[in-house]
Design brief:
Layout lengths: L9 E5 L12 E8 L2 E6 L3 E5 H4 L12 E4 L3 E11 L13 E5 L2 E4 L5 H4 L5 E11 L3 H7 L3 E5 L2 H4 L7 H7 L4 H5 L10
Parallel strand pairs: 5-9
Antiparallel strand pairs: 1-2, 1-10, 2-3, 3-9, 4-5, 6-8, 6-9, 7-8
Length: about 190
């Protein structure tokens, strides 16, 4: 078997040609990627459900919009939390209940009492469900050109205007990839 180079911590940005409605214009942060498969969360799918409605004590810690995000089509009845720790990329000490994913971005254990981690969090976002790929499945999709792989930035996790994240991430890329940000929502109207 070919060794898989880890893409953990990077973003998958849906190519305009990706036809799966679950991932139309999606920006996915890969939380885990290895030879056993991949797991990530869609960063730009806010729901209308307030965090405080489903997770007591966590709503006060989230940024705007303070709603639950649909992290992907898998296990929508489960929750994942991502948080950015100020200075987290340089500091080797990690707060209780936080596990580094990449740089200053990490997973928060929602079983931890919120008041024990509140002071350490710079921003927090809650996701219902996740996106998952079996062994080799993501690599096949990458080979088909379904996704662009780009570097993540800590601000991507808590973008205040998530509906514009797809264009914003593409726009900050160099070369031809930045031009993809101008791709029309409905190419038939072009």
């Amino acid at each position: 078997m070919t060794e898989v180079s880890s893409l953990t911590g990077r973003l998958l940005v849906a190519a305009p040609a990706l036809t799966d409605p679950n991932f139309d214009r999606a920006v996915v942060l890969l939380i885990d990627h290895d030879e056993e498969g991949s797991l990530g969360v869609v960063l730009n799918r806010p729901t209308s459900v307030g965090v405080g409605e489903v997770l007591e004590g966590w709503g006060e810690l989230t940024g705007q919009p303070d709603v639950v995000f649909q992290g992907g089509p898998v296990s929508l009845d489960s929750a994942l939390a991502l948080a950015v720790i100020p200075g987290g990329s340089a500091d080797d000490r990690t707060p209780l209940g936080w596990r580094r994913v990449h740089g200053a971005i990490g997973l928060v254990d929602l079983e931890t009492p919120p008041e024990l981690v509140a002071a350490a969090l710079g921003s927090l976002r809650i996701f219902a469900g996740y996106a998952g790929w079996g062994p080799g499945q993501l690599e096949d999709e990458l080979g088909e050109g379904a996704w662009y792989v780009v570097e993540s930035e800590p601000g991507d996790v808590s973008a205040p205007d998530p509906e514009r994240l797809w264009r914003a991430v593409l726009r900050r890329q160099r070369g031809e990839l930045a031009m993809v940000a101008t791709y029309p929502d409905d190419p038939s109207l072009n």
